[in-house]
Amino acid sequence: MTIPTEVVGSLPRPTYLQQALADWDAGKATQADVVKAQDKAAEDSVKRMEQTGETLVTDGEQRVSSFATYPITDTLGGTGLAEGLAADGQYFAIFDDGHHRQLPRLVKGPLKYKTYAFDNLKKSKPYATHSMKQAVIAPSMLYLLYPLNGTVEGYPKEQFVEDLVKECEKDIRGCFEAGAKRVSIDFTEGRLASKKDPRNPWTGANLLQTFIDLNNKVLDRFTPEERKNIGIHTCPGGDCDSVHSHEVDYHELLPSMFQMNAGYFLIQLASENDKEKVYKEIGETIRKDANGVKQVRNRHIFLDLAMVVFPEDINSSQVAFVGVVNPLDPKVETPEQIRDALITAAKYIPKDQLGATDDCGFSPFSIDVKPKHGSPDFARDIAFQKIANRVKGVKMASEKLGI
Question: Is the pLDDT confidence value at 80 over 90?
């Protein structure tokens, strides 16, 4: 048995794919041109991630506009925007470097996903020889499509929420049916909900508990056996090598976040200023019982960089996968640094509830030049090095801790 480890999901899109998307928005390329570039990038992502020794691989989200908008638009420039939406919605986030990301605005019901995460998983699964996981967007993010203080004619918010929950459930179930072994729900808006940024009104509307309750409406549609493989990912953002809510104390989020009845959590921590403070709070607030979930930890036997995985029941419930890799920093963490971070975390978090991950997806938005890295192509190379070192560091920590 070893400390479990898992990637969040995304990878930087290569320059040729970002150019194809820009050309499509500009009318200089066709959708077929973009699909060809996406196929190439997805296959490369799967194969190179398998070479790192990662147990559960992804296609790096190479086919989506972003982690948040894949159900509703084909590109960040608005090409292929779903019916019933206008481009002029509220900001999702204003980042520390000054750039922002904006959501569409719902103008007509009912809400219906244009693309599901499982649609893309089905396309990429043939590339894989390892098992795959899939990330999906939280209903709490898409809740922000509805006007903050207004209404949509003929479509009350209560009906919108009901439709949203159904669509998110369908998204998750479809991923498992398509062969995903794990599904993680991206919840980066959780920490941002406590920022109270006057430039971005929703962050001051006290929505955190609304988000928690909404996400639980989806989770509670799954059995405890299913929920042990459904996770929640949280981070302070990670776009263009910048963040949106790093200054918000984790204490504002963690006690509420662990109210969600998920089996595991992927938690940004490598870039946190006071890691031990957060480790301690995780250990104090993570739950032993998430409404009936019995967690399964895998027994991993390492053969060089490959792993043979055997499921093994354990009695604990929620597992905290702490971030040990910073995707925004081109400096590659050594296996020894990752080992040491996990050994420190194990002082505060029960060993049977400890896992390891990356702080965030390596590039959650499709158009991202990765300025601190110099280019998205270099950032891709760095991402695979970081993942490989995480796998090695987890092995070293597991041996040191006797796990």
Answer: yes
